[in-house]
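Structure ticket #2291
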Amino acid sequence: MTQHNIPIIILSDEDDDEGDSLMTLNDSSVLIVENERNEADISKHIEELDEDLAITYSQTAIVLPHARYDCTLAFCRAEQDVSGPLQNNAQYCDQCFCYICDKLASMCEFWTIPGFCHCNSHKHSVYWKSLRDKSLMGYLHELNFTFEPLDMDSDLRRAEASLHTFAGSLAMKYATFLLGFESLNRSGCRCICHRNNNDTTLSQAFGCKGCHKHHFKILEYDYTVVSQHIKMFFNEAKKENPKASVVMLLGAIKLFVTHTVPGNVHAATTVSETVSMLLWRFMTKVWTLLVDFDFSSTFIKQLEYFFQRLPLPSNSTLPKSLSVLPWDDPLLSGVIKGQNITGERQVKGRKLQVLYEPLSVIQARVCKLQQQNKYRELARYLKIVRSTNSPTLLRMRDLVPLYLCKVADYSGAVHTMFSPMLGAACPASRLTPPQFRAYLRIFTSGQVPDIAQQEFDPGNGQMITPDPLLSTKWTPIEDSNTFKMMEVLKFALRVLDCNAAVFANSETWVYLLGVVSSSFITPDGLVVGAFYAEPDVTFQAVTKDSANAILKELTQTSRIQIPKTFENGYPDQARLLLATQALVLRIFHSQLSPILDVIISFRFNHWALRWFFNSLLGRPDVLHYLLCCLLQELSHEEQYQLIQATWSETEHSLVASFLCLYFLENSVVLDSYTYPINSLLATWNELYCPWQLSLRLQLESNVARLTTEKRQILQQIQRQGT
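Resolution: structure written out below.
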């Protein structure tokens, strides 16, 4: 006890709040000892309550905020009475709060208003509790969200306020849209006063009785303003915290998903398409949020209940369920960790569980795993997960080899490249020429392209992913060793065998020949050529036979087997000759154009170019068209100017050497009066074309090997040169 008159609050061990304000002292959970009472009275009451209790210190009680029915002021309870204040219920202290409005009683607008009478509210009434729940949830309750009042945290309150405001503004814009705007149709009027197209005449003549029936008003509708307003709300929702954002997005869907235009088929179709696009955009973001953030199971169930009751269009292709498997789901986690390679899980007493997810969920998981740099896990997931068959899913699966390259698993990448996945052909058959060249660069340089983030397609609202293989930014692979060059060549030949687009592309062959005859590949993808010593004639003959056998087996069985002895003695030269023999078969198959860059790719190894020419001798028709194509490209003024700007004497000499082979080979017939030799002679200009000067010099040094007809051609060239 203090020696001053200080109020004391004594709390009992009982926690009974069922009594009324007139309970006896011994039944009350709170005893207020007023200042006027003396210490003797206090001691007496203490002894009456608990003789073992002794108070050594006390201070003035602080009254905390509380509901009106919990105040020390007398309160009368009733189940439902809104006719007027009951007894003293209208009275309140400074800390009394309205149970319904959740604000100070002094600020409640309906405290004593008949029909409302919030002063009578309390938590023991079903009626008042239901009214409080509606009041706390606000507009979320009207939208039929099933949140509990205790769930209403700051995120949900922001979502409720935003949706309430958006609902009002959207309703006004939609109402304006339904009014339409008038379009005056004057078509088909044949009266004299309207034959003139002048707008002034039309305006003055409107109302003419003779042609009034030709002028009628048509209502037109433009949903653009409404859709733009919805998109603005979408952008606002994306800026919110995840919990508020997902509620705002789902709530907004319910507000616009039923939009249409009664009585106008064309306008209704336009609105339906726009609503469908918006619906996909909103739901894609919802699934992304559900994948990216760890919401409670209770919250997700509440969202699922709301989604199941959305009035979606009958032609909607959205999944029927909003539920997204959590990352720790046994089936999903087993697949990602590599413990489940089938995507199926049999639970005792339940039907077979299959890893099947909506396309938007798959896109969200792919984006999440990319951000976490979990490329091996991403590859496992995409190989196994099932969804609706679509080009988008196929494109995502085609990137699995790239993800394996990200973790330096080149063998796994090649294996996946030629393995069908869930009924689709192998990814190698769908590579574009630029993608094929990108993989060659990855295998030889030890660098991979960066993967850009997914973006929204403004046309349909779905996610699009830029092709990472076409990225201009590349980074080194950690702990990576470059692929063996023979393995790179085997990969390239298998792709050429199964992919018609890559097989037909001239740049593909140029890059492949550059890679197999290179000393190394720079980080920026530049191929640095290497000079290989010319092997002996016997090695070249044996290698040609072996290369033909290897390529024949590849064509027949889609498998490539390289004998261990193939690279004995001249490993670099053997690989170059194998690639060159594949080029020969490509040219035998169909015309290859442009051909000039293909010839230039042998700039460091002229002996390989002669080997290439000799391999074509069995097909005189192919040699002839090859000569025609080459001379035609060299005579193309604009194209040649661009090429010549990057050429050195080496390139000019190489072209001349290849053309010289036509003159030195006796089985090749050249006639100065037929194309293309007559065209060559007609356009001969050594000052403008340095390769022509080099060709003349080479022919003059080998004049003894020329036939009579070819010497005559040389003489004409010499006259042109002078």
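Closing remark: Confidence is low (pLDDT under 50) at residues 8-47, 198-206.
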